[in-house]
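Continuing the series of single-chain predictions for the mutant panel. This is the parent chain; the variants come on the following pages.
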Amino acid sequence: MTLHILSTLGVAGILRDALPAATAAGFPNDAKLDPTARLVAAIEAGARGDVAILTAEAIEALTARGILAAGTRIDFCHSYVGLAVKAGAPHPDIGTEAAFLATLRAAPSLAYSRAGASGLFFAGLVERLGIAAEINAKATVIPQGFTAELAARGEVALAIQQVSELQAIPGIEVVGKLPPSCNTCAVFSGALFADAQPAARGLLDWLAARMTPAVLQAAGLETPR
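Parent structure:
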């Protein structure tokens, strides 16, 4: 019987390779990939599956409500927000807060996501830095999906999103993580739905074992500390 996964886009790059292998290993599955905020809204509206991969905060909130099964959370990885440009384009300086601020102001255009954790963080960041009006006047704020797709097509100069989400798109180059004072760490975790099929435990453990340090690093993610 097919196991149903509801997963954040933050680990999409890994899942694209892992899920066919999971099927071959005896865990037939399908996956719905969306920003965490959209998945949480869908779950709160009644959507269910077998395995949820969301931010740790979302996992804990849904567990507290009995939607996810207590004691099943596994922290998969840490993720940071980064910046990407079209492949071959010059890499701007984002090594310090001042340099990053100057890069944002100099850029003719940029994109971030309205629903993703990185986009919500970035919207708050430019408010804190006092440049929200200036930046949003030239920003394309996508409702969901991958901002790097716009950079790859040359529609924007800069793409802001989780490094792992940027790396999932061909035709771009990741400049790097935003400087520490302008960044945040997201913990992506997996857990079982309270009414998950019995085989879901095996799939969750299989996915956790798949996320080795080498696999995480290649996807722009980091091992949980």
